[in-house]
Amino acid sequence: MMAFATALGSLIPEAVGQITDNLFVNKGNGDEALFYALALFGIITANSLFSLFAIAVSSWMSNKVIMDLRSDIFAKLLRLPKSYFDQNTKGSILSKVTFDVGQLASVASSIWIELVKNSMFLVVLTGYLFYKSWELTLSLIIILPLLAITVKLSSSRVYNSSNKARQSISDMTHLLNENISGGSLIKIYNAQKQESEKFKNLAQIIRQQRFKVNVTTAFNVNAINVLIAFPLGCVVYFSSVYLQMSAGDFLSYFTAMAMLPKPAKGLVKVNKSLQIAMVSGASVFGLMNEEEEKNNGKKQLKKVRGDIKFKKVSFSYADKKTVLSNIDLEVKAGETVALVGATGSGKTTIIQLLAKFYSVDSGSITIDGIDISEFELNSLRSQIAFVDQNVRLFNDTIKNNIALGQVDNMSNKKIENAAKIANAYDFIQEISGQFDAEIGEDGTKLSGGQRQRLAIARAIAKDSPILILDEATSALDSITEKQVQAAISDMQKDRTTIIVAHRLSTIKKSDKIIVLHHGQIVEQGTHQELLDLNGRYASLYGH
Question: For the chain, which domains are there?
Answer without folding.
Answer: 2-171+206-288 (1.20.1560.10), 308-542 (3.40.50.300)
